[in-house]
Amino acid sequence: MPLQNRVDPFGEIHATPERGLFTGNRGIIHDPDAKTLLTKRWATKAWITCALRFRDVRRAPMGRNRPGGKTGWTELFFLDEVTALGAGHRPCFYCRRTSARAFASAYGHAFGAHDPKVGEIDGRLHRERLASGGQPLELDRHGLRLLPDGAMFSDGASDYAIRGGKALRWSFGGYDAISGFDELPDQEMCIITPATTLAVLAGGYRPEWHPSADQLVAKG
């Protein structure tokens, strides 16, 4: 049976068989003996996105991965980096240092911070991400054109990521449909991606997409 460790764009954690392109964590939020989540959904404001493979390190998901058999951080999984950013995570400075520096640089340009500290970034994201109590932004479908590539939103029935002026419908297994904004319901849309991350994306940060996004865009 799949472990409950797969994250959707809203930051909620599910049990599904698909794993995706990235892992990450929010601290220790599981019981290693039962391999189940605790009631809390984060233990730190630093929600990070990590590489699936790094220096040949192997971990047992939801296990005891620290020296002495102690509980290690809880491995979470994301379809792609676009999904992780929507959920309010940011690149890890340890295993994804180049991406983390690019994210921090775009953050600095967006908010006039010469040398932004990671605690400042995490604090802003923690106030904004929906899974930690942030308030959703809303736009009608025409306003979606104001959002950068990589932004995620929901019409209440489906979740989408924006790419090249199109809406790519999200699922745990990949993006499975593409449509123009005018093809979406004529209603208010819930903007999932935190405002800080939207500014980072608008400032030039380029997240990694699941291959299904490339396939949909290529088909038009």
Task: Describe what you observe in this structure.
This protein has 220 residues and is an alpha+beta fold. The chain is 22% helix and 22% strand. The chain has five helices and 14 strands. The chain has helices spanning 81-86, 97-111, 118-128, 195-202, 211-219; strands at residues 4-7, 13-15, 22-25, 30-31, 36-37, 48-51, 76-78, 90-91, 137-140, 152-154, 159-163, 166-169, 177-180, 188-191. It has a six-stranded antiparallel sheet with strand order 9-14-10-11-12-13. A hairpin with a 7-residue loop joins strand 12 and strand 13. Helix 2 (97-111) packs across helix 4 (195-202). The chain is globular. It starts with a strand and ends with a helix. The mean pLDDT is 95.
Summarize the structure.
With 220 residues, the chain is α+β, with helices and mostly antiparallel strands.
Write the layout of secondary structure elements.
Elements: E1 4-7, E2 13-15, E3 22-25, E4 30-31, E5 36-37, E6 48-51, E7 76-78, H1 81-86, E8 90-91, H2 97-111, H3 118-128, E9 137-140, E10 152-154, E11 159-163, E12 166-169, E13 177-180, E14 188-191, H4 195-202, H5 211-219
Helix pairs in contact: 2-4
